[in-house]
Design goal:
The longest helix is centred in the C-terminal third of the chain and has 16 residues. The strands form two sheets. The chain has a five-stranded antiparallel beta sheet with strand order 5-6-4-8-7. Strands 2-1-3-9 form a four-stranded antiparallel beta sheet. With 282 residues, it is α+β, with helices and mostly antiparallel strands. β5 and β6 form a beta hairpin.
Length: 282
Amino acid sequence: MTHQTPIRGEHLTTALTLAAGGTPVLPLRAGKLPAGNCPACLYSACGGRPNMKTPGPCTCPHPCHGWAAATADPDVLNSREWAAAWRGAAGVAYHPGGAGLTVLDLDNADAITWARETLPATRTVPTTRGEHWIYQGTMPSANAVRAGVDIKSAMSYARWIGPGTGTPTELPDVVRALVVREPELARPVTVTVPAGGGACPHRSPRFLERGIAMAEQRISSAAAGVHATVFAAFLAVLSTHGRCGCLTTVHTARLFAAAQAKGESPRHCSDAWANALNRLGM
């Protein structure tokens, strides 16, 4: 990669400041759009990141591929290949999932009222039409999870508007549950606790929360072999938490939602869960 004297435009300066704190960033064009693909990567001709769903093998030095191009590397941000994008940038975006965050994009007054009445307080950032509520933790991204509410976390980008006010708090289960698809809700999964089991050895609920979050991240990060990854993640969760009665339908819904975000069907999720239970003799 070739380099030139850093272009200290307003947007690049903002991007470098965010990157210094570990937040992956990328330039935005007018209309809140990421930089377009270069000719070699147009329509994913490079073979990497098809439809921007997963990071692929593409090593293009340009700011291609939307959220997957986000980086916290100052050398990349200052590179010649990114210079034109910064000169024409209308704003800065960041990858919330890459920073360990989830952004609840509230687009109108009704959505804000719902959040204030339903969700725990966290960092808030005023937007043109509403607010961004920023939580600590990652989850699958989804649009229109309810009227005026989008979720931006894994495999998505959010526009940087400013630091906002307040401190990000832990991502609540009520937000995670918003991405659960209706067919899955119609077929709830229960965890069988073997006779004589049920005594919980965990010191705090945080141990279970970490296990679920790690399984979600493992599934979301799978670039290939999604079926096998989903099964392995389910198996890991059940082997640790399946016999003590800690797991609830909310936890299984989160795991199923992560798998479905990678293209798994509800049936595949149910089959993988059943196979994991059988493997463990549960």
